[in-house]
Amino acid sequence: MNPTRQRLLLPLLNHATLVLFAAVLVGFGLLSPKFFTAANLANLLVQASSTAVVGVGMTFVLLTAGVDLSVGSVMFVAAAVAGKLTLAGAPLPVALLAIVAVGLVVGALNALLVVRLGVLAFIATLGTLYIGRGFGLWLTQTRAMNLPDSFLALGTAKVAGLPLPPVLAAVVVALAHVTLTRTPFGRQLYAVGASREGAKKAGLNVGRLLVAVYVLSGFCAALGGILSLAQLGAVSPTFGTNREFTAIAAAVLGGTSLFGGRGGVFPGTVLGAILIQSVENGLVILNADPYLYPLVTAAIIFLAVLLDSTRSRLQAHWGRRRIFDEPAE
Q1: Does residue 236 sit within a domain?
Q2: What is the DSSP letter of 199?
């Protein structure tokens, strides 16, 4: 490829999500005046909060060149456990702690499989996905559970006049952003993703870092489950289904590489999550055929993977050109 064209293409790929986001906003805004109303934009942020939080945990895993396919099942199992507890009379704080505990336990299980037993992350988390989904279906007997109004109250609660879900998501994103950009732990994650063997030779405890990211992913999935429950107020047999792919798409659309070592949660993953939710929100406003929603989501995921693979290929090619073109001393 022509070097000049390549220099123009790489920045465009790096900011592709921002371009797509602007195009989606303008497109839906022109098609429906309801899209840009204050109420709809606030609702959009509330709906995107859960995806953003789950996407944050996924970003940490992807940065190490791993993947966590179990986050949707974590949300389902945690919601099912919380539903059983609240319907049995347990107070709301106990149910919330149970949700977090489920996330941490499944995250630790994934870490055990990947780090201690050496199972590929894709296989390990695919296994826990099916285990979690099956356990949740057994626990609920495939019946929907309507939760007490206290869960819905979380979704409508406000902090300083702002809805609680976006505020909680903003706190999670801020902590994650600071962790990745301002702490040794964050820098070490990038090093592991760039070269696991190189990180080991540099003296990093790669196993401990991997354990941390999978536990963190489980924790974020649990928080995302809380936010989803706060909006829905019920646990259905399809709760959390395919949320792992949405989280991956949000992270990759935001610039996080599936190959590890590159990406971030802000504005990356946050922008990806809002982009995905904007598309779904716009389709609802336009009263589009509901059967089109999975097709649109699939197109977004495909686009995210295509952008990432193209970006990685061009950057690798550009890096090789720079090495070969350097003058000999």
Answers
A1: yes
A2: H
